[in-house]
Amino acid sequence: MSQAISSEPSLSNEAETSLESVNTVHPRLSLALSEVLSITPPLWPLQEYVAVNPFLGLTENSFLEARHLLREVRDCELLPSLNFYRSLVAGQKISQADIRFAWDHCCDAHPDLFADFSFAELIARLEPEDDASREQDRDYYTVAELVDHQLYGDWTNHIVNDISRYCAAHYDEGQAAWPSPWKDLSLYAAWRHSAQVSRRMEQLGIPSFRDWARQLPTSPAAAIAQSLSVLQVPHEHWRSFLLCEMFSIGGWASFVKQQSKQPGAAASQKDDLLGLLAIRLAYDAALYQAQDAEFSLPFKTPQPVCSDRHVLSRYLLMVAHETSFRKEICDQLTTAKTQPTGRKSAQLVFCIDVRSEGIRRQLEAVSDEVETFGFAGFFGMPFEYIRLGESNGEPQCPVLLSPSFQVNEALRGGTREKSRQFAHRLGFRKAGRKIRKAFQTSAVACFSFVESIGLWYGGKLLTDSLGLNRSASQASGGDGLLLSFRARTGPDVDAEGANRLSLARKTELATGLLRNLGLTRDFAKIVAFCGHSCSVSNNPYKSALDCGACGGRSGQPNARVAASILNDPEVRTQLGQNGIAIPDDTWFVPAVHNTTIEQIQFFDDQNCPEDHSADLAQLKTWAQEASQLRLEERARQNGTTVNAIVRGSGDWSEIRAEWGLAGNAAFIAAPRSRTQNSDLKGRAFLHSYDAAQDPDGKVLELIMTAPLIVAHWINLQYFASTVDNRAFGSGNKTIHNVVGQIGVLQGNGGDLMTGLPWQSLHDGQNLQHQPLRLLAVIETSRAATQQIIDRHPMLQDLFNNGWMSLVVLEGEQLYRKNSAGEWCAEDRTPPGLESILPHSTAAHSSSSPGAST
C-alpha cells in the first residue's frame, strides 16, 4: 500500500520533542495526546501494588458517559448483567421500593435517557425471556484487529506479545539474567534500536519492518504524527483512535505511566508513555502498509451515549442495589451507643481497612475495657524506611504522598558494633541468594543446578504439599530472615546523624497524629497502634493484601515509629504545652494485625515499664480471645475450619488464603459509638471522626481528600475486576507468570494484567464481592461538608457524576446528596424485602455479575 502524505504540519524528525513543544507545531494533536495520556490510569509494580481506580481519568464524565467512551474503543463492560440482578431480586436483596426509588433517581439524573422509559417496562425486563441487547459494536479498532477479522490472522497477539516482551526487558527489576543493553535510554529510543535488528516482524509477514523502524522520527510525538498520516486518520477521530491503540496494551500503558510520573524518574522516562503509544502505532502503520491497496480503516460518525433499554435497565438496577445497601447501612447508624464513662484499660488504633472491622468488633465484645479507633494505617508517619544492610529505603506511606523523612532500622538493644555486624550478616545472605539465583538462571549452570540440588528441592516440595511447612509466624521475610529473627530489629528514630528527627519535628508528627485521630484526652493506660500485614505463600499479589496506606507494605514500622515518638518524655512535654496532656502512666505500644490468621502481635515489649507489664499481659489475653472469635466467625462464613484458615496461610498452593478487601462498599467517618452496635460484616472502612473536636473542618477536609479517595480507588478496582475481570482484572491466578518482578502475565504472553485475580473475588460458586459503588457516610454538618466539596473539583466530579454517593448524618437526621448536588432528607425506613418476580425466575438467575446476558 502506498504511504499517504499528510497535509498537516509535520514535526521534526531530528530532536526529542516533548508534548509541550508539540503544542506549538500541532495544537490539535497535542490536545488529543493530552487527553489520551490523562485517561490512562497508573499501575504500581508488584512490590508496592496498591489498588487504583481504573476509571481515574474519566471522573469528569458521568458513569454512563465513561462507559460509552470506553466501549467505543475497547472490549469492556462497566455494568453487571441482567441475570445477576434477577438473582438479587429473586433472593429478596432488592425490593420493589428500591427499584421505584432508582427509577425516580435515574429519571432526574438522566432525563434525556430515561424520560420515556416507564417503570412497567423495567419490571417486564426482569423476566428471563427479555435478554436481547441491541447495543452497537465498538466504533474503533486497531489495524491489527481489523486485519485479523478480515484475514483470520493473529496479528493482535503477535504485536502485543512483541511489545510485552520488550517492555518486560526494558523495565525488568532484577528477574532477568541478561538485562537489556538499551535500558538507560528512553523507552521509545531503546525500542528503535531493538526494532532495527530484530527480524521477528519480518518473519511473521511485515516486509522491511527494520527499515520502517530506522526511518521513524527520533521523537515519539513526531512518530505518532507520521503514523497517523500513514493511516489517514481524520482529525476528529484522533483522540478515540489513539485511545483504542493505547488500550490495546492498556496494562503496560498503565505501568509506564506510573513509572514516568514517580518522583525521581529519570528525564529520559518522562515521555515514556508517549513513546509506548508511538511504538504501538508504528506496528499498526507498518502492518497497514503491508496490506492490499483496497484495505482502509473505517471511521463511523460518533454516537451519543447508549440509550439501549437493556443497558439502561442494568444501570437502573445497579442504582436499586446500591439503594438497598444504603438503607441497610444507614438504618444501623441512626442510634448511637451511649459510651460508659471512665478511663479505659486499653485503646487500640487500627487501620481503616475493612478487615479491621471484624477484629475491632470482637475486641470490644471481649471486654468493655477496650476502645478502638480507625485511622490511616501509616499513622501519619510518612517516612522512608532504610533496613539494615541496605543503602536505599522503602516509602512507608500512601503512594499519593512522598516520604518527608528517613528512618533507619537498627538492632534492638544492641550496640552500634552489633548492628554493624548484623548488617554484614544480612549482606552475606543477600549476596548468597544473588549467587544462587545466578547459578539457577545461567544458560549453562542451570542444568547442573537441577541435577545437584533437585532432590533436596523435591523433599521441600513434598513437605510443603503435605502441609508440613512452617507456620505463618515462622515464615521467611522478603530478605530471607525468619520473621521471629527480624523482630529483633526495628526503626530507630533517635539514631545519630542526618536522619535523626528533631524534637520539633517529632512534636509536629505527634500533634498531627493525635489531633487527626481525635484522641486528645481520656488516654488509656495502654494505647496500641496496630498496623496490619498478611502472611501468604507463593502469591505475587502479597503487597495488595498488606497495608495500602504503607505503600503495599506492613504497617509494623509505622506503628513502632509512632509509639516511640509518643513515649518520648520531651515530646510529651511539648504536647502538653500544645494542649494535649498525656498522663504519665499512659504507655504506647506498637502491634500488627495479621489479617490472614487474625493474629495480633505486639512489639518492643522490652521497653514497656515494669508497672505496665500486667496491663500489657491482659491486653494480649484479650487480643488472643478476640483473634480466636474472629477466626471462628470467618470459618462459619466461609464454610471451613479455623485450622484450615491457619494452615492455608503457609500453603504455597492455596489460592484463597484470605479475601483481602472483598466486600468493601461503605466508608464511615464518625465516632465509634455510631457503629459499635453494628455488625458491618467487614464491608466498611471505619475512620474515627468527631466533628465536635474539629471546629474549623480541617480534619474533615483531610479525611475527604485523602482516606476517602483511597477507599474510592479500592472500591472501584474491586468493582471493575468483578464486573469485567477480563478487561479490568488479572484473570486466573493459577496460570499467572511474574514478569520482571513488575507484574503478571496470563500464561506466557499477552498484555500486563492490571486488577485483581478472579480467585480474589469468587469462591468457585458465589461472589465474595458485590459490585457496588462506594457509599460515604460522614457524621458532620451539611454546611461543613459542602464547603469542602466546593473547594475541591475532584470531589464535585465524584459525587455529581455518580462515582460515589454521599450521606451526611447531622444530629440524628440523615441527608443524601442527590444527582443535582442538593441535600435531601434520607428515608430511614428499613429496606423492603418483597420479591417482584415469580418464584420460578430464581431458577433462571445467575450469581455471576459478568457482562454477558
TrEMBL record:
<protein>
    <recommendedName>
        <fullName>Probable inorganic carbon transporter subunit DabA</fullName>
    </recommendedName>
</protein>
<keyword id="KW-1003">Cell membrane</keyword>
<keyword id="KW-0472">Membrane</keyword>
<dbReference type="GO" id="GO:0005886">
    <property type="term" value="C:plasma membrane"/>
</dbReference>
<comment type="function">
    <text>Part of an energy-coupled inorganic carbon pump.</text>
</comment>
<keyword id="KW-0813">Transport</keyword>
<keyword id="KW-0862">Zinc</keyword>
<feature type="binding site">
    <location>
        <position position="351"/>
    </location>
    <ligand>
        <name>Zn(2+)</name>
    </ligand>
</feature>
<dbReference type="Pfam" id="PF10070">
    <property type="entry name" value="DabA"/>
</dbReference>
<dbReference type="InterPro" id="IPR018752">
    <property type="entry name" value="DabA"/>
</dbReference>
<feature type="binding site">
    <location>
        <position position="547"/>
    </location>
    <ligand>
        <name>Zn(2+)</name>
    </ligand>
</feature>
<comment type="similarity">
    <text>Belongs to the inorganic carbon transporter (TC 9.A.2) DabA family.</text>
</comment>
<feature type="binding site">
    <location>
        <position position="532"/>
    </location>
    <ligand>
        <name>Zn(2+)</name>
    </ligand>
</feature>
<dbReference type="GO" id="GO:0008270">
    <property type="term" value="F:zinc ion binding"/>
</dbReference>
<feature type="binding site">
    <location>
        <position position="353"/>
    </location>
    <ligand>
        <name>Zn(2+)</name>
    </ligand>
</feature>
<feature type="region of interest" description="Disordered">
    <location>
        <begin position="826"/>
        <end position="853"/>
    </location>
</feature>
<keyword id="KW-0479">Metal-binding</keyword>
<feature type="compositionally biased region" description="Low complexity">
    <location>
        <begin position="838"/>
        <end position="853"/>
    </location>
</feature>
<comment type="subunit">
    <text>Forms a complex with DabB.</text>
</comment>
